[in-house]
Design a protein that fits this description.
homodimer; alpha/beta; two-stranded antiparallel sheet; globular; amidase (chains A, B)
Chain lengths: 575, 575
């Protein structure tokens, strides 16, 4: 590699952040206690014996999901439950054909195995979940009805969201004493709908990696190949949902943090339009930043499950009654569109970083199937992507990393590699004045209007694009956010979906033309030179489908047409 | 008066803004031409002879609206048309009982008289409106149907919004050459709905006065008493709609700019929740500022007309198809609530500036009628109003007035008194860093959540409050925005409505307890010492009704119950 990530850092002086002595003395003991608590949550009756050390399995590019099936690590009943879409489980529970306790036992078992392989959890409390499931079963028995549409559905939660009576730290050691009295609004809404909680999942320091390293519990790994990342920042969600240890996961996304882990780890994930799902109550370095707001959204192995989650959350949960920031747009029933009715603009390359061979192949194969099904395909060279990329990065960092510094320096914890990377976004530690931020907002609004006009003028329904220029990267080697963050700055609802295609080292090699390829930037060189076919074996090829702002319903409806009907991709039946 | 407004200014050095030589030489000639164009729009056949010089009438606290009726300055037919609610006019036109041309002739006539007395217009183009009306009549004749729900309705427009082929300057002389090729989205939507345009109305320099002085055409005056202000910043809209020269007006509001002119000038006005009505395409010093966004909304003499405007605009106009920033919440049909079903929290005093005698009396009388009708009244001492006031002022100015300075210094135009006042908001010319802006946003979000929790916890449907601590102020003597800007920072939809009560110098004197009243601030002293009963004779008493964020429909529905059913206030039949 001729280019190193350190060339991109705006500084190598992080003395304003790190304080090794303070960290070791005051904070590390608390971190060790936190790790012990996690260990204690790994119920022995649900564990399996690993087929080797994690180090060895990682080196071997081990595929734990395949191993799960091949070695029948669950009972037949547990496989049946955990390989049923959540919306069907909910129906079965509502009909009395299945109990919440049975359901949670199955998912709890699979979650703990998932954690053993992928290190997806930050907190495991399956016994608390079983107690809650029992209460729900009792309620059902007594009243003959469910408490809500997600009655008995095991839902995993990104740690960042406030959880009543538990620590919420958001990946910052300085917040390790932050035991919150109340659920954040989203956790509360889900609980009201009948969800069962049993695990809170991993996320990176600062929440600003498309990966997961942190000083609490370290990295999560990819359930399809342990040498690869499960993505991030909703890293643990990617791993646990992709592995089938959760019926539906809840992540958050300010630059790709739902879509990257979904795409990398083999599940689907929706980045909803802003303000449809509550983000109130939790830890974030982006508090008060509204140029490019974070969103919360679902991850699952079926697009219909994403839909059921959104519909239940919005129409029954009515989050606007609890959070003033949620807009009361009811979830509309939109039926699956006919392929022939669809016009899709395809981004083959965003002009910044060229997709790696498996992504280029996957996109091509998907487009061929869409065309065969009658979808009208339009090639789309997305405009102003460099401007969008630069602008969104400045938006993240234009407080001069003030908030991140406060949260990190509080404990003096050591900075992870990708923390340094994201602290170098925009102009790094240079604090902008408000007038500059307003100018960035004006650039953003023009971009949004121009993309809206593009869709209108060309009668395009959706944009299809890579989720990232590669399949899941190797751990701590994901640098480029351009494919995902474009849709954050545009605020377009975007589904990251699985194609049923996986990286194949035999097929997915750079073509002969690549030898002469002249990189358009050092970033592209850094990303592309990381791709060697052997390491990425078995990684899922995930893509993105983006629709019009606030028209999340149409995105999921078209997602079902594409995933279920055209690609016939069934994530419950992979091995 | 022991306190002067100059004490509040953060600086008396405006040399970075004003440049007399440049202004006189390069810009004043263009301004003079602009004034000539306005004069040319005053069609002689529609003018009346004034009963004295404007100076004399002002001194006499002349009531031009009363004069209009008493001297029958319009034909019977013109009175009939201009004193019919717009929603009924629309029905009559749709049935072929009335033509668009007849309608515009009547309103054009009344508008020109309104302008003669109040100086409400910046541009008058009644002949263009008549041509458009004729086209609409031709369309109707040919097709037997209307082009949309506002077919033939004369609508007045705040100048700030882009108008195809005309100058749009927003009150800044530096923009006097800005002839725009396209309508702003709202003008476009209204045109698509069938509206007829014929006048663009007055607004202050910077758009940041609750009044109207500017270097183009000067001050607008109150149609009920010429010594008083018509409010602002949608100043001309207040005057023309209050006088009946427009069926429905369109204003904008970032701190009270729809509600103040509506309340002062004797009409109703809705400040909708943000993002329901497009603000795209126009001039504003707040571009890119999204901590407290401006909104666009309607002003009219009937609450039902506000409703018809909102409903047509949203459900037929579908602004989200044109402006990516508009949220697709359809306008819901909400029926008028029964008084007995309502719980209203009343703000008698916001803790910052005590209401003047006519406002205190008006509020008391309204509350008595509400209670008599069965409405449950709760006294509400609003919390954190000082924090809200300080925060919203900082939000306006936290770019260190960068945008205002650019727009003003471009021409070096002389600064108006209330421009200096608003340039002193927050910390005046001190530019904040982004981190500080983010903290202000966090304060705002907590305020919003706390007020939401108050409404929830106390089962309160609406908040009733003064629109301002006084009735219409004397020109250029309006300083305090606290009653209106509270609902901008909270982003609650707020109706400014007329009560049918008017200031009476005999009744509305400070009570004996006022002699011992200890002012809580210099601002309060400045405002209260401006109130002498004689000057305010005949000024309308307008109040505010605020509801839940995004629930604009309920606010207007309850507004109809209060204004039409309980107060029986008919603005079409005042004299």
């Amino acid at each position: 590699m001729t280019v190193s990530y350190t060339e991109f850092l705006t500084t190598d002086d992080f003395s304003g952040y790190e304080d090794s002595e303070k960290y070791q003395k005051e904070w590390l003991p608390k971190v060790l206690k936190y790790r012990e608590d996690l260990e204690a949550g790994i119920l022995p009756e649900f564990t399996v014996e690993l087929p080797g050390s994690i180090e060895k399995l990682t080196e071997d590019k081990f595929n734990p999901l395949k191993y799960l099936y091949e070695n029948k690590l669950l009972t037949e009943k547990e496989f049946k439950i955990t390989d049923t879409p959540a919306f069907i489980l909910a129906e079965q529970i509502a009909k009395g054909e299945l109990t919440a306790v049975e359901t949670l036992k199955a998912f709890g078992h699979r979650a703990i195995i998932s954690h053993q392989f992928t290190n997806c959890a930050m907190e495991l409390f399956v016994n608390e979940g079983l107690a809650r499931a029992q209460e729900l079963d009792d309620y059902y028995k007594k009243n003959g009805k469910t408490v809500g549409p997600l009655h008995g559905i095991p839902i995993s939660l990104k740690e960042q969201m406030n959880y009543r009576g538990k620590i919420t730290h958001g990946g910052y050691v300085s917040k390790i004493d932050n035991v919150v009295p109340e659920h954040g609004i989203t956790n509360q809404v889900l609980e009201n709908l009948g969800a069962v909680f049993y695990v809170r999942t991993n996320q990176p320091q600062t929440l600003m990696h498309l990966d997961s390293n942190n000083n609490f519990t370290g990295l999560s790994k990819n359930p399809f190949n342990l040498i690869l990342s499960s993505g991030g920042s909703s890293s643990g969600e990617g791993a646990i949902v992709g592995f089938g240890g959760s019926a539906i996961g809840v992540g958050s996304d300010i630059g790709g943090s739902i879509r990257a882990p979904a795409a990398y780890s083999g599940c689907h994930g929706l980045r909803p339009t802003t303000k449809r799902i509550s983000t109130f109550g939790g830890i974030s370095g982006g508090a008060g930043q509204e140029s490019v707001p974070a969103v919360v959204g679902p991850m699952a192995r079926s697009v219909t499950d994403l839909e059921i989650w959104m519909k239940s959350y919005i129409n029954v949960g009515k989050p606007w009654n609890l959070d003033q920031n949620c807009i009361p747009i009811p979830w509309r029933e939109v039926s699956k569109p006919e392929p022939k009715s669809l016009t899709i603009a395809v981004i083959y390359d965003d002009g910044l970083v060229k997709p790696s061979p498996p992504i280029a192949r996957g996109l091509k194969e998907v487009v061929a199937k869409l065309e065969a099904a009658g979808v009208k395909i339009v090639k789309f060279e997305p405009f102003d992507t460099k401007l969008a990329y630069d602008t969104v990065h400045k938006m993240y960092a234009c407080d001069g990393n003030y908030a991140q510094r406060e949260l990190l320096a509080g404990s003096g914890e050591p900075l992870k590699k990708l923390t340094k990377w994201s602290l170098s976004y925009g102009d790094g530690a240079k604090a902008y004045e408000v007038a500059e931020n307003r100018k960035l907002n004006m650039i953003r609004d023009k971009l949004r209007q121009d993309y809206t006009d593009y869709l209108n003028d060309n009668e395009v329904d959706f944009i299809l694009s890579p989720t990232y220029n590669n399949v899941a990267p190797k751990s701590e080697e994901v640098y480029n956010w351009s494919y995902t963050s474009l849709f954050n700055i545009l605020d377009l609802p975007t589904l990251a979906f699985q194609t049923g295609i996986f990286q194949d080292p035999a097929k997915d090699v750079w073509g002969p033309e690549h030898a002469d390829y002249k990189y358009r930037s050092k970033l592209e060189e850094l990303e592309c030179s990381n791709y060697n076919p052997e390491d990425f074996v078995g990684a899922p090829v995930g893509l993105q489908l983006s629709g019009r702002r606030y028209f999340d319903e149409e995105v999921l409806a078209a997602g079902k047409t594409i995933v279920d009907d055209i690609l016939k991709c069934d994530l419950f039946d992979l091995f």
